[in-house]
Amino acid sequence: MFSRILRLTALLSLSALLSHTAPVAAQPADTAPLPIIATIPVIADFVAEVGGDNVKVTSLVGAEADVHDFEPTPQTVRSLKSARLIVANGLGLESWLPRLLDAGHYQGAVVEATSGLTPLTLEEDGTLQADPHAWHDVSNARHYVTTIRDALKAADPAHAASYDANAAAYDAKLVDLDRWVKSRFDAIPKDRRAAITTHDAFQYFAKAYGLTLLAPLGLSSDEQPSAKNLKALIRQIRQNHITALFFEHQIDPRLMRQIAEETGTKVGPELYGDGLSAAGGEAATYLQMIRLNADRLATAMKVNP
Ligand SMILES: [Zn+2]
Predict the structure, then answer these.
(1) 10 C-alpha to ligand 1 centroid (Å)
(2) pLDDT by residue (tens digit) across 104-154?
(3) Global pTM value
(4) In 3D, which of 208, 193, 66 has the Cα closest to residue 134?
(5) 199 C-alpha to center of ligand 1: Å?
(6) Ion ligand 1 nearby residues (CB, 5 A)
């Protein structure tokens, strides 16, 4: 009798100890974080902000990789198996996604974060195309976050209140960021708000904040400009008295150096067009990335006569 009580006490204290040291192991399976796949790091960042501890998000395109020439690997295909939700950008950014979903026999939900947004269009090879880089306008980022919040609530209604609260808190940060970027450029005379970027990732940013940003490459970063387009760009640089030129992260800088040499423009630091820097880097989050781009552009526009 006595030894049974002792054994029971030992068992109880052991389970108390376990529940203290290993709370994760003690959790039932249905509270495990929801596995989500985002196509690009910016969207993964939004999902992480809204999802918090209730989701586990991975980005298909890595932090330093280029979404325009993304090549899914067998491992990418396998990674779809465990996903409960895929969040894409849409507007033609992920042309490889339908084939990937087929290859992975993915049956779960797919949400396009730009769904419901009216895109800007650009001429590409003589035809009008939607410009997919909508997240560079911070007011559009707020739309992404709303879409993601609703998708998470649909996929995991048990944590709806948490997704609502996280989305509202992050939205307040986006409103602040938008105001800050506007004030940064408002301080610069209109005729000085011009620069050259590498590919056309920044049209939304330019429109939202009243800038003229010209680019030698089209919507996709993997095409080379024709000699004719390059000549036209150099003419525009001279006509607009543009003095600042920016490399984009992930893009071969030789072309930009050539343009800088021909036009006598100053080469500024890198901008982040499609990607983010790796965790711990200078632009590892959306908020950091927009601040950095705005700061670099505004500084160059101010400094250059
Ligand atoms: Zn791009």
Answers:
(1) 61
(2) 999 999 999 999 999 999 877 788 889 999 999 999 999 999 999 999 999
(3) 0.83
(4) 208
(5) 7
(6) 201, 274
